[in-house]
Amino acid sequence: MPELIFYFCEVQNAFKVYMVIFKSHQIVQAFNMMDSDIFIGESEEHKRITIKAKLLFIKAFKVYFWLCNAGFACNSIVPFISFLIFRTKLYLPVCNYYFLSDETRDHYFWYILTYQTYCVYNHMMYNISIDTFMSGLILMGLAQFRALNDSLKNIKCVSKNKITDEAEERRLRTELILFSN
């Protein structure tokens, strides 16, 4: 079962690598758009929404980072410490290389264990980076939609005596059309 899960994770990661390598131009464009003055916003509410989304992303990234590292420690470091202290049997963390003979696997056990542990950690760090990258893009997109929704709610211009100001309405419509292009 662990080998099957590992296989499906690798297929998923192949698609992630494809996205990062072959879609990097679109990713850079998305970052450039998010760094523009339009996305930063002029109103205090827009800035508050953007900052709140960034702080949520940072908090979620830290939680995810530490949970993944704790999981790695439980899966790789704790069994090694248990082996050193209590002389329990060590198992390979990813797959048992059943295609090798038992003698070969036992002879190269420490090399295989070191290799797998190192690769699992690097693989985990790669997954943390790419998963939080994609969720961060989605979160920032949602924040921009919230800010846009807030801006659109307040687009109607009414004078002090509750009469619609036609000139201001035309100016706002023109600004909205220019903003959408």
Give an account of the 3D structure.
The protein is mainly alpha-helical. It has one domain. It is built from seven helices and no strands. It has helices spanning 2-22, 24-34, 37-40, 44-86, 102-107, 109-153, 166-180. Helix 4 packs antiparallel against helix 6 (109-153). It is elongated. The chain starts with a helix and ends with a helix. The model has no long low-confidence stretch (mean pLDDT 84).
For the record, the count of structural domains works out to: 1
**Oligomer designation:** single chain
- As a percent range, the share of helical residues equals over 70%
* 3D shape: elongated
Q: Quick one: biggest sheet?
A: none
Poorly predicted parts: none
CA radius of gyration: 26 Å
SS elements, strand count: 0
Strand-and-helix sequence, N→C?
A: HHHHHHH
Fraction in beta strands: under 5%
Structural category: mainly alpha
Ends apart, CA distance between termini: 52 Å
Compute the average pLDDT: 84
Number of helices: 7
Keywords: Cell membrane, Membrane, Olfaction, Receptor, Sensory transduction, Transducer, Transmembrane, Transmembrane helix
Transmembrane segments: 63-86
Subcellular location: Cell membrane
Membrane topology: Multi-pass membrane protein
